[in-house]
Structure formats: structure tokens, C-alpha cells
Amino acid sequence: MQITVLAGGVGGSRFVRGVREECARRWPDGNGGTEASVTVIVNTGDDIWLAGVRLMPDFDSLLYSLAGVNDTERGWGRAGETERVAAELREWGVGWPWFTLGDLDLGTHLARTAWLREGATPSEVTHRLQQRWPLGVHLIPATDTEVDTDVLVADPDKLDGEREMHFQEWWTRYRATLPAIAFRQRNIEAARPAPGVVEAIAGADVVLIAPSNPVVSIGTILSVAGIREALAETSAPVVGVSPIIGGKVVRGMADACLPVIGVETSAEGVGRHYGARSAGGLLDGWLVDEADAAALAPLAAIGLTAASVPLWMRDLDTSADLAGAALDLAV
Ligand code: GDP
Ligand code: FO1
Ligand code: CA
């Protein structure tokens, strides 16, 4: 059984932990693991060069979370983190004072940057980073091209009335409160799928779209030329999970992103946005929460097989049950 997941950071991590757990239940290997092979295609649109080091926040969220060394309260970074270096960087005026690089986390950024400087590609670097902990899944970046996301916002002080900033500044400094006009992934036209991405989609028995941000996580992955085509061509069923429950984002600020691309913040809206594969879209199946059961009929009308199940990933059990429901829909 080969399962391929498209994922971003927090929603992606919780879901992939659930997939790993559900696979160990359905296809046990006798050692607490699974005989199934799980490959995660990871969003790289949040990545950034800061203070001389390369950050890959969504990849690191998945890495730390699957290794069990993540800070579960904050949703990013390492557990038991200290911030001595960050205090020094603030004194030197290096980096951003409102963006904290923890000491343990900096170890990861330094290792990654050292390998990049030696000529390794991002996918080679992410491969090396995964050797440290037995994750039980394979993480691959969607692309090796740097496609850092910029956000265009209104700025009355500028001649053209607009200003562009890195996604991390918009997200972390302004908590997504500056109304966004557009998201632009740098160099996205030149981006190609990283090695193994197209193969993971083509060779999958099931492809799952995690309940991740449809614009800046899944949207960025799909913008890489060749990935959408691979999804259209694969013989595997493609099943997605809604990140929206009862018209609200469960965690985070994705509701600040969806209106920018003209998509309603609802399970039905995101389902329509991804579209039915039978009608040139992405999905064969779409999971919505029980609170959104009213969306099932209109989604069926556009050719999308949808089902309603509990979508809250409160703990490992509920995450695994959700992964199981997604696998069940993929028939
Ligand atoms: P980010 O990269 O850290 O922003 O995380 P992702 O892009 O992977 O996921 C963000 C999305 O996850 C948000 O839009 C949330 O609505 C969604 N999300 C977080 N927790 C849950 C959950 O328990 N259930 C569902 N269905 N969605 C969730
Ligand atoms: N999020 C914050 O809200 N504040 C921070 O200081 C911060 C630092 C940080 C450092 C490394 C890293 O990988 C992620 C970090 N995040 C921080 C999370 C990140 O900004 C976003 O939540 C994600 O990129 C959205 O997916
Ligand atoms: Ca992200």
C-alpha cells in the first residue's frame, strides 16, 4: 500500500500523524510500524532566508511533530526550546525582533544551510534531516526551486498604493490582519516538482490532501508545474479533507487567505474550489465535518463524492480515525 499525502504545517502534521497511526493499525509490520509506505509532499511556500539561514517551517513542523520533539502548545518549533541566541540576534539587530529562532531550532537551520552551501539541493537536505529520527514516513519538498510566498497588501503611503512583504512577515508580525490583495510565489513559473514527487503521485494507491491551508499550503504545491497534471493522471483515487468546519478555520488564519482567491470560507467552498476530478478538478472524494452535512448534496451535484465525519483532530486517536475515513472514501 502506497499512500501519498499533500500537506502544509500544523494541519498537515496532525493529519500525517493520524495517517501513520491508521496505517500501523490496518497494515501492521509486527514491530509497531506499518508495511504501508507513506510519502508526504510538503509545502515550501513558507520558506525564507532569515539571519543568514534557510528556514523551512512546514517541513520542520512535520519533522519535529513526527519525531515527537515538537512544541505542541505553540504549534511550531521544538519542545523544551530556549532562546539565548535569539536574544543576542536582537541585540545585533539581525533577523526580525518579532520572529523567534529558538536555539534547538537554529541547530536545524544551521545544518540545513551548511548542506545547502556545500551544494546539496533542498530535497537532499530534507532527506538528511530525516535520518536523525525514525519518522515512519518519507517527507519530500514539493519543489527544489525557492518559491517563497510574498503577500501584496494595500499601503496608502506608497505611490502605487501597494506594498509587498514576505508571507512570514504578513502572517507572524501582522497576524494576517493586513488585508491581502494577492499571494505571489517567487519564481513559481520556473519551479519543477522535486525528485520523487511525480513518482509518488503516479505510483500511489491513494492520494490524500491534508486539511491544510488551501491557498498558501496546498495552493502552492499545486502551482508547481507538473503536480496538478500528475494528480489528474494518476490511477489512484484522490481524497481531500476540509480544513474548514462550520464556516470557520479550526486553527490559524486561513480565513484571511481564502477570500483573496475568491473562495468562500466553507467546506463546500473549498470542495468546489478543488473541484471534482470527473469535471477537470482535483478530487474524487471530499470529507466534511458532520456540522457541514448540508454541503453533501450540492457537492454530489458537481460530481464530488463527499462524506461527513468528525473532522476535529483533538488527539492521535481522532487524527487516525479521520485518516481512516479518508482511506475508506478512496475506493
Ligand atoms: P500551517 O502551514 O501551519 O498553516 O498549517 P496547514 O496549512 O497544514 O494547515 C492549516 C489549516 O489546518 C487551517 O486552515 C486549519 O483550519 C486546519 N486545521 C487545523 N487543525 C485542524 C483539525 O483538527 N481539523 C481540521 N479539519 N482542520 C484543521
Ligand atoms: N510563528 C510565530 O507566530 N512566531 C514566531 O516567532 C515564529 C518563528 C518560527 C521559527 C521557525 C519556524 O519554522 C516557524 C516559526 N513560526 C513562528 C511559525 C510560522 O511562522 C508559521 O506558523 C508557518 O510558516 C505557517 O505555516
Ligand atoms: Ca504553512
UniProtKB/TrEMBL annotation:
Q: Which InterPro entries match?
A: CofD (IPR002882), CofD-like_dom_sf (IPR038136), FbiA/CofD (IPR010115)
| Keywords associated with the record | Magnesium, Transferase
Source domain of life: Bacteria
Q: Which Pfam families match?
A: CofD
MF terms in GO? LPPG:FO 2-phospho-L-lactate transferase activity; magnesium ion binding
PANTHER family named among the record's database cross-references: 2-PHOSPHO-L-LACTATE TRANSFERASE
Designated name of the protein: LPPG:FO 2-phospho-L-lactate transferase
Q: Species name for this entry? A: Agromyces cerinus subsp. cerinus
